[in-house]
Amino acid sequence: MKKLTSVLIFAAVIITGFAVSVFFSEDAVNNLADSGDILAFALLMSGNIPGGIFASVRKWHGSIDDQFSNIDNLVNKLTEHQKEWIVPPTLLDLLTTNRNALQTLINHCRTTAGSTDDRAARNTLLKSTVGLCLLQVQNWVVQAYIAGALTADDVHSLGFLLPGERGGKHERSKETDVIAEVKVTIINEDFIRVVIDQSSGENAGPVLHGWPHGVKNALIVITSSDGKDEIYRGMTNNLHNDIKMPVGSHGKQFIIKAAFLKHVADEPKFGNQPTFSMPLTTEDLVRAIDRQHHEEFEEHILEVERQRQEIERLQKELRTKN
């Protein structure tokens, strides 16, 4: 049993790190965020959250049983609502595997057969899984809330708070007045790199790097060049972001803007709105040339047909005169 559990936990920890990097490299958040107005779903409470919810949140930093209880609840809730919440299967499978392995280890360590190595393996997997929940999973949950797939009550039921929510006798903090300045660089024909800074004002010195005080979230919005169609909308907790543009963006121009938010329900105060263009690929150019040749060929066919009809008309006139 000792050997089996140690191998199981070691494998789970390795899989956790690998699968998380693979899963989130696909930018599943972008797909969730492409759903409309963020503020239509971001109606947070202006006061304190119920104490029971905050007590559940604090379990993430509690005893082994408290932490496992939150993990178990999270897995059960995500499994129950997998379809309606559009839970990524890769993420749920990883959480379920870790939960099951943890349950086996915790129970084993309560017996006389549990060794020091088993307890170390339990602690390692527990720490790794809690880290997974509080970073990648919580980030996905907030993005799903922004996209309208989850309600605030759903987020709370998973053991998480929304950005800006706090427990205890605290009122909701005021929105930030710091304006964001966004810069965009084209990485290749599909990806752009977006950097968000604090704007130091028009015609002022260099921008101020880093997050404004008390702010750890930013909203990024990309629209078509005329501002009518929204191409991308997503929350981020990174100042440097690589974003994959949607299919059909090659050769088109876009507008990008960003705003710092203390709470997901804050009214965004956008700063500069630079434009950028996505490059055409070789395949795009080939298709354009083929389309041009096709159009020219059709025009040639029409011209030949027009000349044939003209010749027939002239021949008919000659026969009539004769």
Short account of what is shown:
The chain is an alpha+beta fold and 322 residues long. It has helices at residues 2-25, 28-33, 51-58, 64-80, 89-109, 116-146, 152-157, 282-321, and strands at residues 180-186, 191-198, 217-224, 230-236, 240-244, 253-261, 275-277.
Question: What is the topology?
Answer:
Elements: H1 2-25, H2 28-33, H3 51-58, H4 64-80, H5 89-109, H6 116-146, H7 152-157, E1 180-186, E2 191-198, E3 217-224, E4 230-236, E5 240-244, E6 253-261, E7 275-277, H8 282-321
Antiparallel strand pairs: 1-2, 2-5, 3-4, 3-6, 6-7
Note down, in words, how this protein is organized.
The protein is α+β, with helices and mostly antiparallel strands. Helix content is 48%, strand content 15%. It is built from eight helices and seven strands. It has a four-stranded antiparallel beta sheet with strand order 4-3-6-7. Helix 1 runs parallel beside helix 6, helix 4 packs antiparallel against helix 5 (89-109) and helix 4 (64-80) crosses helix 6 (116-146). The radius of gyration is 29 Å and the shape is elongated. The termini are far apart. Mean pLDDT is 78; it is low at 2-7 and 9-47.
